[in-house]
Amino acid sequence: MYRVDGKLSRMSAIHRIDNFEVIDVLGHGASSTIYAVQDLSSGQVYAIKHVVRKAPEDQRFVDQALNEHEVCNQLDHPVLRKSHRLIRRRKVLRVSELLVLMELVDGVTVEAHRPQGLRRMLLTFLAVTDGLNAMHGIGYLHCDIKPNNILVANTGGVKIIDFGQSCPVNTIKQRIQGTPDYISPEQVLRHPLTPRTDVFNLGATMYWCLTDQYVPTLIPKDDRIVPKHQAQLRPVVELNPKVPPSLSALVMQCLEFEPAKRPASMKEMHERLEIALRQLDNGGTHDRANTG
User: Fold this and answer.
1) Do residues 19 and 28 make contact, with C-beta atoms less than 8 angstroms apart?
2) Do 36 and 183 form a contact (C-beta atoms < 8 A)?
3) Which H or E element spans position 282?
4) How much is the pTM?
5) Which residues are paired to 24 by β-bridges?
6) Which domains are seen in the chain, by residue range?
7) E strand or H helix at 90, and its extent?
8) Ordered DSSP codes for 162-222
9) Is residue 109 a contact partner of residue 147, using CB atoms and an 8 Å limit?
10) Rounded to whole angstroms, what are the CA distances from 171 to 8, 27, 148, 194, 236?
């Protein structure tokens, strides 16, 4: 969703959107384009997500954008990207286009560029647990934590983005939503979603960051349903011996099939990541290693 180099460069007058001058195209998604724009009145820069409903099946993308704005309006945390304004465009009484005016962050996703060094990875994970803990504190889940939804700013800060699949705690969704290789079992089985759902999604993200391998979820990328007994993982420390055992154990616990066996909260996740960081700092060797 963001340029790999993480830099914004003014484009030669491609067009305007309402009272905003388009500076750059940041990326494309399903039925949407994200632009960097400047408000012609205030000079303030923003990101705009432009969602177009071209066919009836595109309605779900409109619904996700509406949901994202509604959820983000209730969030106030430096790790959670803000949404400032929603503009609807209608055609024959139906919303045909949406413009979601959001906080602009100049940076790259973890998927595009993994944090270099184990210490930096841990600091990124710690920031993510802070943001998710704030969401959980007001009764919402993210439900799609993955490397492409974690943005590392050029200033070093971390932002969680894309709240289109967010929902209240204990929601049972009418259809399966999530990302193959990061989706939790309860999302696929359409069971109640809890903070432990975000724990699984983050655990799958950490597993990929630390091992360069995907978790065999119930929906891998080829869309085959994987029986429970096949979803066995090699411990992180086996695939990357430079990872402290405490961190490996935490990631593996996050990926337990049964939610009750996972860490209970992002607060617990944060505390255990801090322990791993202290162990790393005391050892002073892992951070210099290439973690893939």
Assistant:
1) no
2) no
3) helix 266-283
4) 0.87
5) 36
6) 16-102 (3.30.200.20), 108-283 (1.10.510.10)
7) strand 83-91
8) --TT-EETT---SS--S-TTT--HHHHHTPPP-HHHHHHHHHHHHHHHHHS-----SS-TT
9) yes
10) 38, 30, 24, 8, 31
* Cβ neighbours for 280, distance < 8 A, ≥ 6 positions apart: 118, 119, 122, 244, 286, 287
In total, the chain counts a number of residues equal to 292
Could you tell me which residues come within 8 angstroms of residue 15 by beta carbon, excluding any fewer than 6 positions away?
22
Could you tell me which residues are beta bridge partners of residue 119? Answer: none
**150-188 per-position pLDDT tens digit:** 999 988 899 999 999 999 999 999 999 999 999 999 999
Q: Hey, what's the torsion of the CAs at 255, 128, 115, 106, to 10 degrees?
A: 140
C-alpha–C-alpha distance, residues 209 and 115, integer Å: 9
**What type of residue sits at position 15?**
H
- Distance (Å, whole) CA 270 – CA 272: 6
